[in-house]
Design a protein that fits this description.
single chain; mainly alpha; Transcription Regulator spoIIAA; six-stranded mixed sheet; two-stranded antiparallel ribbon; 10 strands; disordered C terminus
Length: about 675
């Protein structure tokens, strides 16, 4: 038995020795062929798609919807009833919510909808005044758009209605047209028309799958834009808080009006300020309590409505007893249209006059972009909290349809509200049914309770809007942007000051321009790093980031960190590499090989290729050989077409490690 064991061990030993010698033989005989084949893999890949093919594929990817589990192709063999339900469920996502709907979910949605209505009614009225419209138009906008959105949208938590930022932008942009508008009716017609065009643009963005455009507005730009809009909203509402009569909206104009009123006390009404400021403090205090104690959160939700009721009683008492003293009267809303069954039609009020229609379309485009950008951001935020996703293109289509229909039913621009969506989430809503309950409650209020709003102080509505301003200014996020990325903060500041001192359009354009400039500078700046081998590994890293990285004797390795090697940076890259090599030539160790790591390089133009040709010529004259490691598909394709690969003797490798091994063993394989 021992003999058999010994024999088997001898056989195994001989077999191992034979395999090892065979492996060594293969390694010695075929290593050159393997290296040559690997170089061939890099140098001779299939041709990349043409530019026309890439453009067509990109457009196709944008315009053609991706397959969805409920499409008819996946349900082809299913019964007709199931296919029909899948079709309508795709068309009206609310049907999916009803599949597992029950009494408990309806109870949650119903209570959330009532709380939303209590919170939304004062906000809708206040935002309408911010848009220079009568309060009833804010209530109209709180009815039809939420109902349509609930049927079509994929978001379950977002609440629709008039927004403070949209309202301010709408009024300020229309006023910049300087049209001869002599009454509120003409202005209202312009608002409806702008809303109509905004809806058309949003619908087009969604149908052509342009929802991705929201990704091109950076978060830093949005932070600066909203902060400046909040300052503008605050200044606007200070006029209402002090009871100042002025239609000016520009920063310095409003400040001048405030200063004039302070110097001349007859221009402002003290009771307006006392009422507005007192209830503003009350609303902010209830929010503070709600954040400190979740059990008191309901108080912050009902505080605006309680403030309207209490301030209306106070205004009634003051105006009745002080009716002979004008300076002590409280400015109130007065009569509000209501009592109808639903929003009145505004179809005949749209303006398509060739003299103004182009300007109104431009404003509509700006409002459309700003509106759906903010709405998708709100929808994504709350969807992530609930663990599901939204579909940007469907959301934009929903916004477009609801604004088109809204413009025909006396509504102005509606979008997703951050504050109301937060209330909806905190109230425990389960589905979009809470939007429907809210809209129906607002409708009942408009029909039966508008008479009670006669004595609502204008300063009270200003206070409600002012209470929302702190939520739009995210100082914490601005500090974080400054700390992490100074260029991002520059975009944030550009958007902020552009909106504040010029216009919303200019502010947004400044922020986007700076963001794109950052992308361009980052992609073309001549970022080069000297790299070395990390001890004990086959990895290579920047010698500045990893001081322990080891230099390879006789080999100089640089990594191109730019995405492009082009006319903007090619000459600088060439000069930097030559300067580094020349500086080292005077030392004890000289370089025999220069390896360029092109793994980060996504594209190259003719100027970039010319600079590499010149660099190779200069290196060759000094007895230094140039090699390229890990070039991308389009880069190696262009280098091959320009015959650069043959000019460097085919020294192209899959990785930096393989290039170093070839240089160290002086086995630079020519292709």
């Amino acid at each position: 038995m021992c003999r058999n064991s010994s024999n088997s061990e001898m056989v195994a030993s001989k077999k191992s020795t034979l395999e090892k010698s065979t492996l060594e033989k293969i390694t010695l005989e075929e290593v050159l062929d393997i290296e040559k084949n690997m170089s061939q893999w890099v140098v001779n890949p299939p041709d990349p798609p043409s530019m026309l093919r890439q453009v067509v594929d990109n457009i196709k990817d944008i315009l053609v919807p991706h397959p969805h589990p409920n499409t008819f192709s996946s349900l082809r063999n299913q019964p007709f009833s199931k296919r029909a339900f899948a079709f309508f469920k795709n068309l009206f996502p609310i049907l999916a919510s009803f599949q597992n709907y029950n009494a408990q979910k309806f109870k949650c949605d119903f209570m959330a909808g009532l709380i939303l209505a209590i919170f939304a009614i004062p906000q809708c009225m206040g935002n309408a005044t911010l848009a220079q419209l009568s309060p009833e138009y804010g209530l109209y906008t709180g009815i039809v758009p939420p109902l349509i959105y609930a049927l079509l949208a994929s978001s379950r938590e977002m609440v629709i209605g008039p927004g403070s930022v949209d309202s301010l932008l709408l009024s300020s942009m229309i006023q910049t047209l300087k049209l001869p508008i002599h009454d509120s009716i003409g202005y209202t017609h312009l608002v409806f028309t702008v809303t109509f065009f905004a809806g058309i643009f949003q619908l087009a963005f969604g149908l052509f799958r342009f929802g991705f455009l929201v990704e091109y507005i950076s978060q830093s730009t949005i932070v600066g834009f909203l902060a400046a809009a909040a300052v503008g909203i605050g200044l606007q509402q200070l006029k209402g808080l002090f009871g100042i009569d002025t239609n000016k909206t520009a920063l310095f104009s409003v400040l001048k009006s405030l200063w004039t009123s302070f110097k001349n006390q007859s221009l402002w009404h003290p009771y307006n300020f006392v009422i507005g400021f007192s209830f503003l403090c009350f609303i902010l205090f209830t929010r503070f309590l709600g954040k400190r104690n979740k059990k008191l959160l309901w108080l912050s939700h009902v505080a605006p409505l309680l403030s309207i009721i209490a301030s209306s009683i106070i205004a009634y008492k003051i105006n009745v007893h002080e009716h002979q003293v004008k300076d002590y009267r409280v400015e109130v809303l007065g009569p509000i249209k209501g009592g109808g069954s639903l929003n009145p039609s505004s179809f005949n009020q749209l303006i398509f006059d060739s003299k103004v229609v182009v300007h109104l379309m431009r404003i509509g485009l700006n409002i459309a972009i700003i509106s759906f950008t903010g709405s998708i951001a709100v929808g994504r935020s709350f969807a992530s909290l609930k663990g599901h996703s939204i579909y940007p293109n469907r959301e934009v289509v929903s916004l477009g349809i609801m604004n088109i229909v809204g413009s025909l039913t006396s509504c102005y621009i509606a979008s997703g509200s951050l504050s109301r969506s937060a209330v909806n989430y905190d109230a425990g809503s389960e589905t979009v049914v809470s939007n429907i309950v809210m809209a129906l409650t607002v409708l009942l209020s408009l029909k039966f309770l508008t008479g009670l709003l006669y004595f609502t102080p204008k300063a009270m509505l200003a206070a409600i809007i002012l209470s929302a301003v702190p939520g739009l200014i995210d100082l914490k996020k601005a500090r974080e942007i400054w700390k992490v990325d100074k260029m991002d903060f520059l975009a944030c500041a550009g958007a902020f000051f552009g909106v504040l001192f010029a216009s919303p359009e200019i502010g947004l354009a400044v922020g986007i321009t700076i963001s794109f400039a950052k992308i361009i500078l980052t992609s073309v700046q001549p970022a080069i790093a000297v790299i070395g081998r990390l001890p004990g590994t086959d990895s290579f890293g920047d010698v500045q980031q990893y001081p322990m990285a080891l230099n390879i004797p006789g080999v100089f390795i640089v990594s191109l960190k730019s995405a492009w090697l082009c006319f903007a940076n090619a000459n600088l890259v060439e000069e930097m590499i030559e300067r580094w090599v020349n500086n080292e030539k005077g030392g004890e160790s000289t370089f025999h090989h220069v390896i360029i790591d092109a793994s980060s390089l996504t594209n190259i133009d003719t100027t970039g290729i010319a600079s590499l040709v010149e660099l190779n010529k200069n290196m060759t004259s000094r007895g230094v050989k140039l090699a390229i490691a890990n070039p991308r598909w389009h880069v190696i394709h262009k280098l091959r077409l320009a015959n650069f690969v043959s000019k460097i003797g085919g020294r192209v490798f899959l990785s930096v490690g393989e290039a170093v091994d070839a240089c160290v063993t002086t086995k630079m394989v020519a292709v």
